[in-house]
Amino acid sequence: MPNHKVTEVVLLACGSFNPITNMHLRMFELARDHLHDTGQYNVVKGIISPVGDAYKKKGLIEASHRLEMARLATANSDWITVDDWESLQPEWLETAKVVRDASMRIILRAPGIKREKVTSVRVKSKMINGPQLMLLCGADVLESFAVPNLWKQEDIAEIVGFYGLVCITRSGSDPYKFIQQSDDLWTHHKNIHVVHEWITNEISATHVRRALRRGHSVRYLVPENVIDYIREQRLYSAESERKNSDIVLAPLQRYTRASSSS
Ligand SMILES: Nc1ncnc2c1ncn2[C@@H]1O[C@H](COP(=O)(O)OP(=O)(O)OP(=O)(O)O)[C@@H](O)[C@H]1O
Ligand SMILES: NC(=O)c1ccc[n+]([C@@H]2O[C@H](COP(=O)(O)O)[C@@H](O)[C@H]2O)c1
Ligand SMILES: [Zn+2]
After folding, report:
1. Of 23, 139, 161, 193, which sits with the fewest C-beta atoms within 10 Å of its C-beta?
2. 235 lies in some domain
3. Ligand 1 pocket, 138 CB below 6 A?
4. What is the rounded end-to-end Cα distance, in angstroms, of the chain?
5. Does residue 2 sit within a domain?
6. Residue 35 belongs to a domain
7. Which residues form a coiled coil (predicted)?
């Protein structure tokens, strides 16, 4: 048996989770199997971080409901948890900041680390032998890196260059081609783990919300306890889908303003 180092990994998934679906949970299982199969990683934890209301995505219902549904969906998992920090922030936060914050908290929990000495994730992660944080996303999020005024190049470089990305294939996306055609991503391609989902399905929260609005069943697409919660709280209606419909998505607002004033 070769004697090589196995790196502990924490997977962090950011997104709307509006509502959480079985596919969101499956992403974690797929990513963990893939990383374990390399023989180089041991996935110790998964974290779901629902985006805050200030993201202003069309149809985005209150974070308190999205958080509760994520908590219900992960209640039976012994390794996937929900983090409310991002969703409680009054302003929308860049994903790089969320990754940095989560990584810092992992470092602070590592044995022998003194809070006052922690100045930067970059410095500290070199000093401790703690787990490495990787961002987990679907291929649509990876491909959104190319949308003008949506992502800052330095944030992408930090996420893929310093932390690492695990990307699950999704119908309509070709992450291998996307990475191959981007010089910036290609530079860090060893830090991008593309996981092929062979059991393809098109579960998306958009499809689930549409079915709910029409009174159709979403059974087997969404965990049962989440369906019960949606029913009890009467979530997802034509009215909730109109939320934010005349508001520009927070990152587009922020970066369009910044580029037009420079
Ligand atoms: N079927 C899927 N296959 C692969 N990745 C997925 C799938 N569904 C969601 N994801 C990923 O889960 C994360 C959270 O996504 P999000 O909350 O936007 O869900 P969604 O189903 O894409 O919702 P919506 O339709 O509202 O955009 C993203 O990284 C997204 O790419
Ligand atoms: N510049 C950025 O950091 C940036 C831009 C767009 C979306 N995001 C994040 O990606 C996720 C995408 O979620 P949705 O696919 O539900 O829109 C959200 O967590 C959002 O905050 C980050
Ligand atoms: Zn999405």
Report:
1. 161
2. yes
3. yes
4. 57
5. no
6. yes
7. none
The Cα–Cα gap between 69 and 225 comes to 8
Closest CA to 243 of 223, 213, 217: 213
Tens-place pLDDT, residues 48-60: 999 999 999 999 9
pLDDT in tens, 13-50: 999 999 999 999 999 999 999 999 999 999 999 999 99
CA of 173 to the centre of ligand 2 (A): 17
Nearest-ligand number for the alpha carbon of 23: 1
Structural domain span for residue 23: 7-261
Whole-number CA gyration radius for the chain: 19
154 to 7, 11, 55, 185: CA distances (angstroms): 25, 21, 20, 12
Domain-located, residue 1: no
Q: Per residue in 85-128, pLDDT tens?
A: 999 999 999 999 999 999 988 878 776 666 555 556 555 555 56
**pLDDT for res 112:** 65
Cβ(83) – ligand 2 distance below 6 Å: no
Nearest ligand, CA 199: 1
DSSP letter for each residue of 164-213:
-EEEE--TT--HHHHHHH-HHHHHTGGGEEEE--SS-----HHHHHHHHH
What is the domain count for the chain? 1
Q: Confirm or reject: Cβ of 170 under 6 Å from ligand 1.
A: yes
Q: Give mean pLDDT, residues 209-236.
A: 98
pTM of the model: 0.95
